[in-house]
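Please complete every field before forwarding. Incomplete forms are returned to the sender.

SECTION A: IDENTIFIERS
Entry label: holo-816
Bound molecule: zinc ion
Molecule representation: SMILES string

SECTION B: INPUTS
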Amino acid sequence: MGKRSSRDIRSESRLDVLHALLSAGTSTRGELAQVTGLSIATVATIVQELRGEGLVADAGSSALGAGRPTTMLRVNGDRGRILGIDVAETYVRAIVFDAALEQVGSVEVPMDESLPSVGSVTESIVRAVDTALSETGVDRAHVLGAGVALPGLISAEESADAVAPRWAARNVEVLHRLRERIGLPLVVENPLKAIATAELWFGRGRTASSMVIANLGTGVGAGIVLEGKILRGATHSAGEWGHAVLVLDGRSCRCGRLGCVEAYVGAPGIQQTLREIAPDHELARVPQREFIDGLARTHRESGGDPVVEEVLERTAHYLGVALGDLASIIDPEVMMLTGWTAWALGDDLVDPTKAELQRRAPAGATTGVELGVSTVRGSSVAIGMATLAFERFLGDVGLSTTRLPLAL
Amino acid sequence: MGKRSSRDIRSESRLDVLHALLSAGTSTRGELAQVTGLSIATVATIVQELRGEGLVADAGSSALGAGRPTTMLRVNGDRGRILGIDVAETYVRAIVFDAALEQVGSVEVPMDESLPSVGSVTESIVRAVDTALSETGVDRAHVLGAGVALPGLISAEESADAVAPRWAARNVEVLHRLRERIGLPLVVENPLKAIATAELWFGRGRTASSMVIANLGTGVGAGIVLEGKILRGATHSAGEWGHAVLVLDGRSCRCGRLGCVEAYVGAPGIQQTLREIAPDHELARVPQREFIDGLARTHRESGGDPVVEEVLERTAHYLGVALGDLASIIDPEVMMLTGWTAWALGDDLVDPTKAELQRRAPAGATTGVELGVSTVRGSSVAIGMATLAFERFLGDVGLSTTRLPLAL
Ligand SMILES: [Zn+2]
Ligand SMILES: [Zn+2]
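SECTION C: PREDICTED COMPLEX
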């Protein structure tokens, strides 16, 4: 039931100030006090602590208004570098950020095996980190931390592996090996938590108090934020909405079950919908990213294609129902769609999904929920992991004791 | 992002001490310190405050061990009376509790109309309260508070009512009228939150940190507890799991949508399953409580009835899938079943449901979740509402500032 001491409250205030400064770019103490709701005296003390760690620096002075100029502050990007690492099913992407969480460089290495083992995952991560650091000319001693997003439920075959049936077990093993090989302070998390963190720091989460972030790509899942905190779950598996049942005893899912949400609104699921409508369509067999881009392009062409329209309509139906279930259970203030499928299809998918979501909520529970596409684009998993590594660094230097990811 | 002051922490400590004392019946200061994790000095201070309000009294002394006898404490039931009121679809039940939350008396009055209006709901509640107080001989001045559970989503017809489409709007109106009529300190809540409160104080929630309480009756819904706190939701509708979709475009539900969980595992839904298997079965048209009792009785008879077995099997399948979805999204430590259907069918339903839940979770997310039938029986909604009214009373006398229900 976690009691919080005044020390914890102080830690949160420091995060709030940093958060506000990162969001604003540059800011005065007075503006930070206004945004965070803290007193100017508290902000001044916190700024002094953060300057002591080299995390905040002057950014000139503001001469606005009648009074004497006030000092503008910024997060000091040169304080160090942070790595955000997205371990996907076919590649590992490592992105180098500065301490103001601005991207400095990025590399992508392919995953060695089609069914990744603990060993091959570890090797690919190590190679991505080494390449990213050498390409950006960053010294290891200058790296404040690295955050690695490891996917949870991957496939029935893998989950049947007696050695590592669950997220924690397998990922503890990967983390253990990475610790030996990488020589950097490490944080390991589920990509859904990474996406939720990115949305909390840089997206809609800056002002929403409860939020569901639905990630649409090959797989689908949801990050859940309640009272500004990420829901982790008793076994670290909260938000595995992709394997909730949408159609009882429906399409088979790669997790081994039937009728999962992912089998209908994951990119391969959407392609399956197209194949059910028109097995010989030109988009029926192309690779999944090409398929999603093809859907978006065809939809926007004048004339259009009735098959594509039917696919978008059915997908919005599936997605609206599935999001409606999440909304019924969690009752969030905001739902954001993210991931490459959401970015490619954008409002072409959001608008009919929103209509479906509201149509399905006559009793009011989900009528008022805000639905949109996340403004955090490109590498939200890596951005989120870098942010989590940054939070961990703040803890290591005594500036934070809360919001840290599960210690593995 | 709710900051908590040390005053809040103190409030929680007071609730923890009261909670521990209610659970134990009688206890020493040392035992209370052990159970709550607070220091003996803190417990002594809190006990003094609670004695000051007449909430805690001596219960003799314990002569165990070698030292001098230590004073046993108990919650002072005679401090006052508390009302817990369960507004169901066809009746209002008012239960009178003492300040130690022991039941003193109970009355039930029928609801006047089949489709209750704000006016008829108010009148039935007033009549139930008046009758309960006069039958138990309790003076209004001696009542510390009353808690009223008002159901949320009732029916498509009612929700289509332009005046009160949502929980908050209609219930604010009922509360407003009750304030004028009842003359007692009032708390209004959703029955799911009441059930979750009862489970937190008197059931499995005393030791679980995250928990889903699935209520199975005419309707179904879930109370969700995270880190010892009840999830309310942005529009006060969290846990409306009964209207999540189990079968896409499936059976029509009384909420006006298709394929809701409730249409399969609510008592009328279970009876519908039986009618689909055997339309002319002797249980096909009996009233719903009689139907559920009939299922339980027939199942336990030697010989049995293949139709009843098939109904239980399918229901466990539906319930396992629906609970699996909840578990995937929330990832709780514990799931408890409650409500009259769960109590009647008990382990006959729980064991196959548990098997289904685990079968559907090959990837591990829900494998470890504990599933059981709640030990809080009979009137968990009324017990929970009385507890919420008790918490409100503690706030009114300055002994608590947290965990109070939404102020309406
Ligand atoms: Zn699946
Ligand atoms: Zn329904």
